[in-house]
Input
Amino acid sequence: MQALMTFRIALRALARNKLRAFLTMLGIIIGVGAVIAMVAIGEGAKSTIRAQIAALGTNVLIVLPGSNVQGGVRAGFGNVNTLLDADARAMARELPSVAFVSPVLRRQEQVVAANLNWGTLAQGVAPEFQQIRDWEVAQGRFLHEGDMESAAKVAVIGQTVARQLFGSDDALDAVIRIRNIPFRVVGVLVPKGQTGQGTDQDDTVMIPYTTMQKRLMRITWVQSIVVKAVSAERVDEAEEQIALLLRQRHSIASGREDDFNVRNLSDIAEAATTTARVMAVLLGSVASISLLVGGIGIMNIMLVSVTERTREIGIRMAVGARGRDIMLQFLVEAVVMAATGGLIGILLGIGSSEAIKQWAQWPTLINPAIIAIAFLFSGAVGVFFGFYPAKKAANLDPIEALRYE
Output
């Protein structure tokens, strides 16, 4: 009952100066709203990065050819033809840490269907590429081992290619032409969407890598090899085993530079996620400064309120109010202002996050835990910055307070 009465008195005191109370809460409102919005932006960025890495496949390693040196100029990885499909078969056969392996060939091609054509990325891959990329088939089937052995003229197309060449018509079993060579569409992939660089993953045509070697590129080597480790814990082990196997197969002596490069997508994912996490913490920290500013504003107004209500405090003490009652009243006022500002700030933060998502097309992800933490922190700010004014009010001498004009 005593606590309820104290709460009512605090509300009446705040209601006497509504505008001043609102302006005092404004710092808390902006602080809480900014924290929620900034953390939502950071969490959205981390979620997007994780989704993009997952779209590339999990536990994935990419093996690239080495580089050549001419006149002291190093051309970079991929400029020599040092990888063979036999290397890929050896990895799958001999390395216990490797689950799936696929040679990969890529080049831009113009694909024709009836009277329509579309420039897209043609990829020569093995059947294992589907498991490596975790890419499901919406219609038909993916490539199989028989297609590799016979260098079959079959293709699996992405959603973008299907839409551009066939519109709303069924693309399955249709014939497309690449360099005047007919390919039968045996499958249509489920959509993957864009990468972080804006590349459309669905704008692709996949054919057997043997077909691409023999019929389109007329080569015997492969441009890269993608490997999926058996688990995330064994990715580093797979990387070491691949490097050791290729050095043996390519007869690279100790101390000589490798003619290949193994890239670990897990390291790339971890670096990108760490960067996004640091940015989220930085944004949240900068936004939380507004909460401290709001807390200082509460302390300032409460000190003014103590001065203005000195005579009121003296009268209350004269009729029996104890120091802790006075202290509790002013403390409740400070907490009510901070908590109310926190609730409004939560609504502002959620609304701002949704507005950013809709208008700026920037992904945001609101974490309920952050909302709870922001609200509790706003209440804690009220307690912390309201304690000194409340203590000052409780320590007033009743006689001096009654004399105050």
